[in-house]
Write a structure and sequence with these properties.
The structure holds 2 protein chains of 2 kinds.
Chain A lengths: L1 H39 L5 H15 L2 H11 L9 H26 L3 H9 L4 H31 L11 H12 L3 H30 L2
Chain B lengths: L10 E10 L2 E11 L4 E5 L6 H8 L7 E6 L2 E2 L2 E4 L2 E4 L2 H7 L3 E4 L11 H11 L5 H14 L15 H13 L5 E5 L7 H16 L3 E5 L3 H7 L2 E6 L2 E6 L1 H6 L4 H13 L2
Parallel strand pairs in B: 3-10, 3-11, 8-9, 9-10
Antiparallel strand pairs in B: 1-2, 1-4, 4-5, 6-7, 11-12
Helix pairs in contact in B: 3-4, 3-5, 4-5, 5-6
The chains are: A mainly alpha, B alpha/beta.
């Protein structure tokens, strides 16, 4: 099988790019999503409305459109970035909207009474968040967060359209060179599947660990 | 302990009103609680008794009237004749004399029993671990749970959980304990152990306000019984007279229903 010999290094470079991009995008999306969730709970109307708007826009826009806006529209507001940073930024901003919803649901499922008990003891609200809500919330949201990371990995295929040399782009490139379609895309599918299985396994491990303290 | 009539009340409630949307849940409550008094609030569901307790604790912001603790207005500040909602720190300071126990315990499930009891000591009173745990052990001992200090809430029975919740509140040395139906979520055979702890507290002179359906507890431990219905205090008096000779038809009905049920 000369196909495998010839194209393995290229495929692996694409896989590495996908891993790198998704890792950095998740690293951006998780804290940003948490920030959006916390804004939703602020008193007053302006900040929660802004956070709500953010979530609605990100949920209501295809990732490809977000990427086009950043990549082609970015320069008109002075944001000139190469394709890969745009991809990371776009994927991160997009993922943050989903993570925010997951975190919001997680916080909501902690009984209100736990907060009241803490307030009655005089515990300040930021300490309640840090010591009582976040530790429980993180356990609750581990499965949906892992699921959302998997979705982000698959969505990252859209970065091929803005010329990022990630796994799908590499697959297309090989298909163009060899006029073979089945082999390169099967190889790409297999690599995505392996990556996602690994993430899922890590997720199960985290869940088990969380359950046993 | 019997409060002296001439004592200045520890908590004074004047014309307290609370609305949820268009429904008025508290329709002008006047009530005083004296030092070392045990006051039980009884009444049917929806009578506003829990809302009264929660308004005193300022877990609900009341709409009109006042709650004062040693002459300090709870939850609001009055400036130039206008009233504004107090900030978080001010409210925390206002209610620092209150300990509260909830129907559903509301222990923090990710913390051990000891951590539940010492969390506020460490965070609010900034005590070191050793010092906090010493107080924690004393409190757990007091409610008979010291042996379970290292366990997590899910490993405890409902009665044990509620006793931990009482220890958690007591650790902060409150001047008044507020109990919101502390035994209503318990299996019948676990009610006694919680009531015993509460009775012991009462005998030690703790000022207590207890919203409860436990008529036996109200009859035997309370100094004062308050009967609420539809957002108003209908009757108030010492438990002997109130239960033996209710003045209002509403309380007569309520007590009859309760007696029929307990046969």
């Amino acid at each position: 099988m000369s196909f495998i010999e010839t194209y393995t290094p290229l495929l692996l470079s694409g896989l590495w790019a996908t891993i790198r991009i998704c890792f950095l995008a998740t690293l951006l999306a998780l804290p940003l999503g948490l920030g959006v969730t916390l804004l939703l709970r602020r008193p007053g109307r302006a900040l929660p409305a802004l956070a709500r708007l953010y979530v609605e826009v990100m949920r209501g826009t295809p990732i490809l459109v977000v990427l086009f806006l950043l990549y082609y529209g970015g320069p008109s507001i002075g944001l000139v970035l190469e394709a890969e940073p745009v991809g990371i930024l776009g994927l991160g901003l997009y993922g943050a909207g989903y993570f925010a919803e997951i975190f919001r649901a997680g916080l909501q499922s902690i009984p209100q009474g736990q907060r009241e008990a803490a307030r009655m003891l005089g515990i300040p609200s930021w300490r309640i968040l840090l010591r009582i809500e976040l530790p429980q919330m993180l356990r609750l949201v581990t499965p949906p967060v892992i699921n959302q990371i998997i979705v982000l990995i698959k969505e990252s295929a859209a970065l091929s359209i803005i010329t990022v040399a990630e796994l799908t782009k590499i697959g297309a490139q090989i298909a163009n060179e060899t006029f073979a379609v089945i082999e390169p895309y099967l190889a790409v599918a297999l690599l995505y599947w392996l990556l996602i299985e690994l993430i899922a396994l890590a997720g199960h491990w985290l869940e088990r660990k969380a359950k046993h303290g | 302990m019997k409060p002296e009539a001439t004592d200045k009340p520890l908590i004074e409630i004047r014309n307290l009103r609370k609305r949820f949307g268009t429904i008025e849940v508290l329709k002008g409550i006047d009530l005083a609680i004296h030092r070392s008094e045990v006051l039980c609030v009884i009444g049917p569901s929806g009578s506003g008794k829990s809302t009264l307790l929660r308004s005193i604790a300022f877990l609900e912001a009341y709409d009109e009237g006042s709650v004062t603790f040693e002459d300090r207005l709870i939850g609001y500040r009055e400036e130039n004749g206008r009233r504004r909602r107090a900030g978080e720190r001010e409210i925390n300071a206002d209610r620092s004399g209150f300990g509260m126990v909830f129907q559903h315990f509301h222990l923090w499930p990710h913390m051990s029993v000891m951590e539940n009891v010492t969390e506020a000591l460490r965070v609010v009173k900034a005590l070191g671990r050793a010092e906090a745990e010493q107080i924690g052990r004393e409190m757990l001992d007091k409610v008979g749970i010291a042996a379970h200090a290292a366990k997590y809430p899910e490993q405890l029975s409902g009665g044990q959980k509620q006793r931990v919740a009482i220890a958690r509140a007591l650790a902060m040395k409150p001047r008044v304990m507020l109990f919101d139906e502390p035994t209503s979520a318990l299996d019948p055979e676990l009610v006694g152990e919680v009531l015993a702890v509460m009775k012991q507290l009462a005998q030690e002179g703790m000022t207590m306000m207890v919203v409860t359906h436990e008529m036996g507890f109200a009859a035997h431990v309370a100094d004062t019984v308050v009967f609420m219905d539809q957002g108003r205090i209908v009757e108030k008096g010492d438990p002997g007279a109130t239960f033996a000779d209710p003045k209002s038809n509403r309380l007569k009905q309520f007590l009859n229903t309760w007696r029929e049920r307990s046969i």
